[in-house]
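Let us practice reading a record.
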Amino acid sequence: MTSPIEDAILDLLKALPPGKSIDPSEVAKIIQPERWQRVLGQVRSTAVGMARAGTVVITRHGKPADPDSFRGVYRLRLPQDPAPE
């Protein structure tokens, strides 16, 4: 069973071209449009859990970040398929 935050993250990411990312505030604004800042912490903790499970990738400066130790501004994207050999 997924949460509304997980659903919002996946819906936004699936609507993008491969390799593109979203700002977590976009998710928060879907969940609670009026006071979206209040849910940013929940979006972050949900994103960390999803990254640990391999469902999404947390990026900083366009590069994958460790979900257990990243700090500051981040974005979310879907995992990319490895390049064919």
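A brief commentary: The domain at 4-77 is CATH 1.10.10.10 (Arc Repressor Mutant, subunit A).
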